[in-house]
Amino acid sequence: MAEEYIQIEAGASQEYFGPLSRYIEDDDVTDIDYNGHEVWLTDSSNTRYIARGLDLSDEFVEQFTRRVSNDVSKPFHKMSPVLEAETDTLRITIVHESVCQGMRCFCIRKSLPSVRLTEENALSSGYASKEMLEFLKNCIRSRMNVVFAGNPGAGKTECAKFFSQYIPAHDRVITIEDNPEWHYRKLNPGKDCVEMKIGKSMDYTDAIKTCLRLNPAWMVLSEARSTEVRYLLEGFSTGVRGITTLHTDDVRKIPDRVVNMIGQDVAADRIENDVYSFIDVGVLIKRKVSDETGSGKVRRYIDEICLFSREGKKNKVTMIAEDGMMTGNDIPDCMMKKFNDAGIFHPFGFTGEPVKIPMNRVEGKCANITGFLKVDESGYVAETGREYRVHDRMGSDMESDAVSKDESEKAMEEVRQEMLRFMEKVGKELDSGSETGATYCGRQAYI
Q1: Cβ(306)–Cβ(281) under 8 Å?
Q2: pTM, whole model, 2 decimals?
Q3: pLDDT band at 368, cuts 50/70/90?
Q4: Residue 293 CB neighbours (<10 A)
């Protein structure tokens, strides 16, 4: 159900939300839940606790309900016991006492235009290992289709929002959601984005079909819930890349969930084959209470990562991470090709200090490349117009003067092979005193 929109004027929070306004204005509070007796709060560190000293009067609850009901022009009584509304950053749900054992209840969920998950706090909190983060960032950079799975409240959208930041800047992104949670444009200023919202005049299926006419490079669906996932797969089959979330407790169940959502209209084996063909990565986020002391402290973390592939008419799931740890399983050749095509030769990233690789002159038909390349976790090979460049975010130390794309590709392939040979040599010798001046500090690095 799509909520009706409420426009609350700046500075009117105190009048509209009364004693709840301080929590509305506190960016650290993510959820405000009233059970008819107490107000429970959830904060950005995933701690849940009672708002001590706050006793909502029946008069306030009635006034608040009436205010929301009037603003969205919706009835609220025994025959219409659920009232829903939204603002730019809030989603409000109020449930009538006739279906809540005589107690009126409500929930206010906040979705701010920010990403609470960062690489630093992910590592420090045990949310994910460095290898997991680098691998998933590289999946996005390689334009793979990713499904973020988990139970309700696990933090699927927050995780997906974090990794969506690594979508290449020049790719057009179209978001489809019923509640404003992604805030892609505000989180990624300057990127090409169209934000679509479903409602009475457009459901998820219509939105996906419309999206495909708007020249998307990426389609971001807030949640796959029902038969619309069929059109999502069809979109992926055309080459549009995508991110979505769905409810399940194991990445290996994603194909079955998709088949069940689509129903009986299409043969199950055909849909299952499409899942393995057009969905590349599954990520499971788990949520659990980290102690039994009653503090309400909740831990969220990436529990599973898998790759879906279909080769030789056989469907395969390759577990990359399980029980919160890397499995050490090899990446299937067909998936490794996707990484390599994006210029990523070590998908798990670099585990030590940056490596400086001096390059000898490489002669090609149209390339004369010299200098040295700084290789770190942000480096990759990218095409910039008619010129091919090996660079990181800080700039490029090497480039080709290629006059044609075909010739420059050949020249750059020679460079890649030279770099691979160099890394193998440095990795074996571990010699920081040689004339190359390179030090190999980890078992993997970008090339």
Answers
A1: yes
A2: 0.69
A3: very low
A4: 8
